[in-house]
## 1
Amino acid sequence: MSEPVAALTHPALAGAAHGFLGRQGGVSTGVVAGLNVSFSEDDPALTAENRRRVVEAVLPGATLTCCYQVHSPDVVTVTEPWADDARPHADALVTDRTGVLLGVLTADCAPVLFHDRQAGVVGAAHAGWKGAFTGVTDATVAAMEALGATRANIAAVVGPCIAQKSYEVDEGFERRFLEADAQNERFFRAGKPGHAWFDLEGYVADRLRAVGVGTVAMLGEDTYAQEERFYSFRRATHRGEASYGREISVIGLR
């Protein structure tokens, strides 16, 4: 008997069906063994079964709706689900419709789930460093407001992503952030000459607080360091593996 799907949740998102999922409970094998939800790196039948299990574990009967992620600040408002081959190019989704399960795929980037319980609006964002830097979370909050949400009433939780201790970057990367705002220095810790360690989770959380999100939380889970629990692009790259898989974070209204 296979192990059950494991979904991390957070009390700040209570009232919305949600989960930050990792590798546990899936049918994929090999280097992407577990609950891989990427069609590009697996047998499509296995990926489809994994996605079905995600829905059943979090919001049975809902329709999983994802975008074609491109590391942008772009957000799409979902009024009805679309076919997987018709996904819009974007990195965040928002909706006020029930029965729609918004999903973002990650493998070190930060997934962020949003909920305004009073307004009945949810959102999901894929925040890699580029999307975070160019404002994908800011844009998600604005798109939720267009559906009636209020910033002070929004709760946002940053899910499993690569931690600072695992995220070495070069000086050009660091310079980009410091030139945008000298205060971003606090998200970098000095490393070997010409390098630093970047706190993606902390940076994303700070962006959320800066635009007035009422409740901001972080799960503090390092995807790179926990091979049995999460997929990691950087870990697979360091090992020279051909595939790395994706986990998914989802949220929807009942």
## 2
Amino acid sequence: MSQARPRPHRDDLRIAVGGLAGGLLLWAFGVFSRGGSLDLIVWPASWAPLVPLAVMAACAPLRRVRPGLGLLLGTAALALDLLTRGSIATIVLYTDLVYAAVLYGSPAAARRITWITGLLTVLGGVLPAALLRSAQGLLIGVAVGVVAFAPATTGWVVRNHRDAAEAARLRAEQTALLAEKDRIQALHAERARVARELHDLVAGHLSAIAIHSTAALSIDDPATSKEALGVIRENSVEGLAEMRRLIGILRDHDGGGVSATPTLDGLAALVDGARAGGLDVTLDADHGRVPVPVELAAYRIVQESLTNALKHAGPGLVTVRVAHRDGALDVRVTSPYGGADGPRAPGSGAGLIGMRERAALLGGGFGAGPDGAEWTVRATLPVSGGDPE
């Protein structure tokens, strides 16, 4: 399929019609660009200037769509006009063709036209003055400069300003696109962070509620049911408090109000809660002072590991070890693997994803899987260079 040819711009058509009408008006009043004796004019007929005028007007619609061709035909029309009594309108139209060729033509053509017209201006002034040995010869160079070099220079300046404005516009668009991309990435990262926090805050409590409610429904023992209901109520209250703290964080725009960031000092309480849920847990913590992001990640990894142990672990001892060594905080949680008929509470698999993301955000490592008769969760969180405050 052939590409449609560009159509002349409306303003270019107006320039052609206006230039032709102005030239005809000047011709009707007998106004020509050159006077004096007709013996010095090759084509002295009074109607002769109308021919180059018509050609020049026909070139005007090409000033944007084919600027090089328009300038070439216009130069031929100007040369023809020099053989007649001349028309001011023809010269004015030609100056516009030179300007348009530099402004709308290719960069290489714009440079060539500017250099050529500048060279012709110099030669047009120097050579006649040297040959005639008169300063009046410089007038030819001045005429060439006014008709050709001045419009070419003006077109070059306008072109540079236009290109600079276009480059600035493109840079602004690129900056806006990058800013929008950063905004979307930040939004996704924030949504992932809120999803991790929400999961870690409520998953443990809801798992305990599910397990103990199942026990209360399946065991016909008032004492056991009462104990299960107590655990359910405790986890419900704690889960509600955690949700309220999270909502407070989301609503506190300046971050100076509610604080829901747990610390490693709360691991003991976390382990006590797991014991209340029915797990046999031991804690070995020797962490010292670590940066707040590392502290939060380690706490959440232990919390999620205990939640998973509550849902999936077989009978036996669950061990939690947190140690600060070699510039990193090592977190390891082991629980009995196998022996259970199935998960005591449903899971989505988001917990392992969240723990891996927390470790990756800190530049650390994470692994989880069976190790013989145990299921081991291990995270290595770098703490070197962090702010422990």
## 3
Amino acid sequence: MTAKTISSGILRALGIIAAIALGLYFLYKIESVLAYLAIAAVIALIGRPVILFLRHKLKFPNTLAVVLTMVLILGILGGILALFVPLLAEQGKNLSLLDIEDLQQNVEGLYREITQYLGLSQSDIEESIQESKIFANLDFGFIPNFLNSLMGTLGDLSIGLFSVLFISFFFLKDSKLLQSGILAFVPDRNEQRTIKSIDKINNLLSRYFVGLLLQILILFIIYTIVLLIVGIENAIVIAFLCALFNVIPYIGPIIGGVLMILLTMTSNLGADFSTVILPKTGYILIGLTMGQLIDNFFSQPFIFSNSVKSHPLEIFLVIIIAGLLFGVVGMIVAVPGYTAIKVILKEFLAENKTVKSLTKDL
């Protein structure tokens, strides 16, 4: 091997590394666009069954079916915003006029009620508050500032929403648009296999996301009924938020449960702890338990077995590994990503023993 060959090999390797680095940097700079594409693809997969129903069952033209589907999606988004915008506006107005010292005193009062209920004396409470300085170190002034910054980002969110809906329309109108873009980078000999893989992935993920919406709807109904029975204000909004957290596997239900309990307790500040706050919190815990039992033993097994064709234990391990590697985002995309990988492996490595075992149900 000559020096010229070695130097050319080194230069080629450096060129490849530089190209990869530039590619990764480019993807990093356009991460918002990639997020829009990903969200639009999910919306297109959710809307796909509606379009197929309108086209095949009701014989609607493709463009009309897409327009009606987009109107339905916009109606759902508008309904969700209609729930939250008045609440945010009201709370923002209240918090803009909020007396921070009064809020701090209310939280201290709740703390005293809890410690009194646990059997601690008033002197112990006062001494522990003074020694720990827990409330002195808490800056409740961040709440109005946070809301102001949140309102400032609404403009950016509106641009993102418009972009997502615009891309979703064309994904729905031309179902082969994304496929054509992928095939541009695929060699001719693998084109048919790639098309079959994409069609299979679309079918599985479409059923998965529709099932996920059904899962959220079931929890939303259960939580709403529980909160309305208990008599919590803004029950529908709180139930929707807590049900939405279920999109994050395993961690999401815990976050949603803690949020619901905190909102229940803080909405009854000033009431008697033992006769009002504690019983309501207990009822909320019962409702949360019922919702999670139904979700764990009915909703999730139904979704995983009938949509992505994977065993619940298999899904559990994939989600845990993805969470350890990529955090919360990894947990959210673990199931769709794993499903896509399984379909591709089955199409291109069908004879492999391990692949056969993992994809026998596909």
